[in-house]
Amino acid sequence: MKKIIILMGVPGSGKGTQAKKIAKKYNYGHISTGDLLRALDNNQSADPEDKKKLAEMKAGRLVADDLIYKLAFREMDGYLDAGRGVVLDGAIRNVEQAKKYQEYFVGKKLKDEVLAIEVALSDGSSYNRLTKRKVCPVCGFILPYSPENELKMDCPECNAKLIVRADDNPETIKKRIIEQGNQAIKPILDYYAGLGLLFKVDGEPAIKEVEREIERVIDNQELVISDE
Ligand code: AP5
Ligand code: MG
């Protein structure tokens, strides 16, 4: 199986939910740039210049590429140098970043170890999911939405109080869908399709079903697509 698994998709497509499962099953490092940025935001001793760049995230826009490289490449170095694979969760959000990551993989002699998977979801489903999401600020657990879970206040994994993410308010969600919805991510998908690395999984069915399809791609790489 490939050492670099790139998960892409609109906000709320299930990148985090599925990346955690992949990382656990294959003992891969899980790199979510969103989580790294939120950790930076909570880090009192972090570089104030870096923290200033988080204003973009709070407004639902992409943060500066250089901050992403600084955070993500350091994390990847750690896992890859220890011989482990990585699953990238939303770590690539524009074509410039995609190219820079490819350069990084070439430098690591991992050019043939890259697999890109789009978890496809409509912008409408994205909005519906994000307006209902609850997460654990301590262990990162993402509570699957269901009528029973809607009433849950505590994390089933570590018992901490569940929260609604700061960017999961209707106004910021709408901005994220404009900035990072299906129209916005199309050029990145085209880039990976052009390299012959893109696979697509339908993100609309139940979590377990999406997980099964992603595993089929990882294990067999048989579900080739690309919208062309
Ligand atoms: P990030 O934290 O990555 O946010 P995002 O892209 O908006 O994606 P989400 O985390 O909201 O959704 P997800 O796809 O992980 O879905 P989840 O599994 O939680 O990034 C935050 C911000 O950081 C960005 O807006 C940007 O500003 C900045 N940033 C990050 N990376 C960057 C980069 N490389 N460059 C520049 N800026 C960057 O699932 C969502 C909900 O749906 C959950 O409630 C879940 O339970 C539910 N769900 C999941 N799958 C299913 C299913 N199959 N059926 C039903 N419900 C499901
Ligand atoms: Mg996420």
Automatic annotation (TrEMBL):
Catalytic activity: AMP + ATP = 2 ADP
Binding, ATP: 12-17, 133, 205
Record's subcellular location: Cytoplasm
InterPro entries, per the entry: Adenylat/UMP-CMP_kin, P-loop_NTPase
Top EC group: transferase
Entry keyword set: ATP-binding, Cytoplasm, Kinase, Nucleotide biosynthesis, Nucleotide-binding, Transferase
GO cellular-component term (any): cytoplasm
Pfam family, one: ADK
Pathway(s) served: Purine metabolism; AMP biosynthesis via salvage pathway; AMP from ADP: step 1/1
GO annotation terms (biological process): AMP salvage
Residues involved in AMP binding: 33, 38, 61-63, 97, 165, 176
Subunit structure and binding partners: Monomer.
HAMAP family, per the entry: Adenylate_kinase_Adk
Protein name (Swiss-Prot/TrEMBL): Adenylate kinase
